[in-house]
Design brief:
The complex is a heterodimer of chains A (557) and B (221). By secondary structure, chain A is of the alpha/beta class. Chain A contains 23 helices and 13 strands. Classes of the chains: A alpha/beta (557), B alpha/beta (221).
Chain lengths: 557, 221
């Protein structure tokens, strides 16, 4: 542009944050295309006996492993002829029609082929998708999940952040690591801190799959979510997996009484260079159906860590909304993303969350960063702790239950401190590197890991290894807590281990209340059938949402 | 670095041209007829199949199919010759040396590094993708586990590459080094993920599932 006279208006616009985002054009041949690619298969089905012999234009003899799995386990052949005979418009209108109950939609959508499902969603705009979500999510009361991580993997900071997060209302918390060998300590920090903040918290440690299963079996975590499935055979096989091996892993969790869900999302196949020219939403539909076929209760999707890909192409965020809705239409719990940065623009990131926030989902975020994004070891969430008052304001502005509640500073300081002291006691009892009073103090009052000192990392790593080698379990942690005066926290740990035996929280979309009651799609099913039905905010909850501490009260003037 | 629209366009055009030229044939054809490997500052000569080493003083570095051939720099423009030089220097500071292999059967950095670790006399391997994503691996770990992972290619700078070489050497000596400090830029994804997808599609087009890892002679110019 040298020598060309520039418009000051355009120069100003170019300096806006949105211009830092990587927007890219569609590229059909590699599948850099959100939904409705001309290369997507055309819906079709042929059934002989109760076996699908042709699906979406392909005879059974040519099925990939994924297509075979979906055809055999994820399409209800009993209703398939009836469901497939309906037009895409008929089916999408059923989703937004308040006179068609959720159960009827489920009956038909679980009998459709992948290409048909993807095509139904193509007929919908995002407002229609949101209307459908209000009816189709399986649990009536929405909830929220948080990320709790630390750039320093600092065990005390993690425990304090876990306590604050669950005190603020996050019912599930998830961690991962900067350094993988810190994994056992991160699990321990969320276990202890999570129960300090709210008894009944479900916590998880997203790492290598065998490790995740082991810490779960030991009672150091309560659920798992990062069991990834993909929409093309090549990506699946690259990860050393098949739909059958993932199903086997899922059954390992179930047999040990551990909640779990799969993870997938638009953009992962093209990100890994193996989308085979199909649209992101069509491939994601296969993932959702693999999840259904595996018998898993739920799925985390909404692009997740690949959000920069659909976020960069036209209609990408519409596709992300659509994938959440498909998950609901197959009667699965959905942890609906919003969990990764994809834009520099505050407008875009807020807008991206509205399709899940306004209608409500099982887990609106999966998760919301309960730490500053510089500490977010999932590489940053769409919202972080610095945005939490904005979030509370949005709940209040729209009278929406986004799962969080306003809190008082002194209460947060108290739970952070208690979590730090509980970790200090556990470390001392188990012979781990000492946690000083100064560390507890610093972590109680810190904003993020930049405000606290460094641990002796090699010593911590050796101790974390010892935790695994010596077979330390949740019971050992509970004993240490009880011995050192944290009996209430110890009881919470035992309460959560009892859930593993009772198994109620294996039901679809479960969370655990502080009295041990499990709420799920079984005892809190979504009954939405239009205005005046479905989730109704209680007066008590509305009072709570209204009471942001910084609002000016008329009686004070 | 901002995303360079011209670079994007160039990659898209090149890959499209290749798709057209090769029809539906496996894209790996391009790799089989690879031109002499040339990138300024380093020469990489293929020496034959990579073998399992016995030297406890070696760290094996696996590089991806198009590293320092089609791709000259990382995603943020760091020359790949400088990347290699820093990894070598870091390892040599600890009195060990690097043996380099090129992996063709995968461009998944975890599996690349695990392959390197399995061939390494010390049991320690490093994997580096052309765009910069890196990992330090150990033979007896599960492929998707690791000793240290550097997942955000845009934030990996030359001192980090040197530290990766140094720490890999320390692991090889049986030490427990403090892990290389993790850079974390929450805004790396918004800026680079689309580009990373394009780069990965390009790199993956050089994959050849039937081709075993090849040992490389490395000389810096």
């Amino acid at each position: 542009m040298a020598g060309t006279k520039r418009s000051k208006r355009f120069e100003a616009l170019e300096n806006r944050p949105v211009h830092l985002d990587g927007f890219i054009g569609e590229w059909i041949e590699v599948g850099l295309y959100a939904m409705g690619s001309p290369q997507d298969p055309k819906p079709s089905i042929k059934i002989e006996g109760d076996k699908i012999v042709e699906m979406d234009g392909k005879p059974r003899s040519e099925f990939t492993a994924i297509e075979q799995f979906v055809a055999d386990y994820a399409v209800n052949t009993k209703n398939a002829t009836e469901a497939m005979a309906k037009s895409e418009i008929e089916l999408s209108r059923m989703l937004v029609d308040i006179n068609v109950p959720r159960t009827e939609c489920i009956r038909l959508f679980t009998a459709l082929t992948p290409a048909k499902v993807a095509r139904v969603l193509e007929t919908m705009n995002v407002v229609e998708m949101m209307m459908a979500m209000q009816k189709m999510r399986c649990r009536q009361t929405p909830a929220n999940q948080a990320h709790v991580t630390s750039a320093k993997d600092h065990p005390v900071m993690l425990a304090a952040d876990a306590a604050e997060a669950t005190f603020r209302g996050f019912k599930e918390i998830e961690t991962t690591v900067g350094v993988v060998r810190y994994g056992p300590f991160n699990a321990l920090a969320l276990l202890v801190g999570g129960q300090v903040g709210r008894r009944g918290t479900l916590s998880q440690d997203a790492l290598e799959e065998a490790f995740e299963l082991e810490v779960g079996m030991r009672g150091l975590t309560h659920y798992a979510e990062t069991v990834s499935v993909y929409g093309t055979e090549r990506v699946f096989v690259d990860g050393d997996d098949t739909p059958w091996s993932k199903s086997f892993l899922a059954s390992a969790y179930a047999s040990r009484g551990l909640k779990m869900r799969f993870t997938s999302g638009t953009g992962s196949e093209v990100q890994m260079g193996a989308a085979e020219g199909k649209s992101m939403l069509y491939l994601e539909t296969l993932c959702i159906m693999v999840t259904k076929g595996a018998g898993v209760q739920g799925l985390q999707n909404g692009s997740i860590s690949c959000i920069g890909v659909p976020g960069a192409v036209p209609s990408g965020l519409r596709a992300v909304t659509a994938e959440n809705l498909i998950t609901m239409c197959l009667d699965l719990e959905v942890a609906s993303g919003n969990d990764q940065t994809f834009t520099h623009s505050d407008q875009r990131r807020t807008a991206r969350t509205m399709p899940q926030f306004l209608p409500g989902t099982d887990w609106i975020f999966s998760g919301y960063s309960a730490v500053p994004n510089y500490d977010n070891m999932f590489a940053g969430s769409n919202w972080d702790i610095a945005d939490v008052d904005d979030y509370l304001a949005l709940q209040r502005d729209f009278k929406v239950d986004g799962g969080l509640r306003p809190v008082q500073e002194e209460d947060v300081i108290a739970v952070r401190s208690k979590a730090g002291r509980a970790m200090q006691a556990v470390f001392e009892e188990l012979g781990f590197p000492p946690i000083t009073d100064d560390e507890v103090e610093a972590c109680t009052y810190a904003f993020g890991s930049k405000d606290i000192g460094d641990r002796n990392i090699p010593e911590d790593l050796k101790a974390a290894e010892r935790l695994m080698k010596e077979g330390i379990t949740g019971v050992d942690v509970a004993k240490a807590l009880a011995k050192r005066g944290f009996r209430d926290v110890a009881e919470s740990l035992i309460l959560m281990m009892r859930q593993r035996v009772a198994g109620d929280y294996l039901q679809t979309s479960a969370w655990v209340a502080s009295d041990g009651t499990v709420y799920s799609a079984v005892n809190d099913p979504n009954t939405y059938m239009g205005p005046g039905t479905g989730y109704k905010m209680s007066d008590e909850r509305w009072e709570e949402i209204k009471s942001i501490p910084w609002a000016i009260r008329a009686e004070d003037i | 670095m901002q995303i360079n629209p011209e670079l994007l366009e160039k990659i898209v055009t090149e890959v499209l041209a290749e798709i057209e030229a090769s029809g539906a044939a496996p894209a790996s054809a391009a790799a089989v007829t690879a031109a002499p490997e040339a990138v300024a500052g380093v020469s990489l000569q293929e020496k034959g199949p990579a073998s399992r080493g016995t030297d406890p003083k070696e760290v094996v570095l696996a590089i991806s199919p198009a590293f320092a051939t089609t791709f000259k720099t990382t995603i943020v423009g760091i020359p790949l010759s400088a990347v290699l030089r820093q990894v070598f220097a870091g390892t040599e500071e600890e009195g060990l040396h690097v043996r380099v292999i090129r992996v063709y059967h995968t461009s998944d950095v975890a599996f690349m590094a695990h392959q390197a670790a399995r061939l390494s006399g010390s049991g320690i391997g490093i994997g580096i993708l052309s765009r910069g994503t890196s990992i330090i691996h150990q033979r007896n770990l599960a492929p998707l586990s690791n000793l240290e992972l550097f997942p955000q290619s845009p934030v990996i700078d030359l001192p980090t590459f040197r530290a990766i070489g140094k720490n890999a050497a320390k692991y090889a000596k049986g030490e427990s080094p403090t892990p290389v400090p993790t850079n974390n830029d929450p805004m790396a994804r918004p800026r680079y993920q689309g580009l990373a997808a394009l780069l990965h599609n390009k790199e993956a087009s050089f994959q050849d599932p039937s081709k075993a890892p090849v040992e490389l002679a490395v000389s810096f110019e």
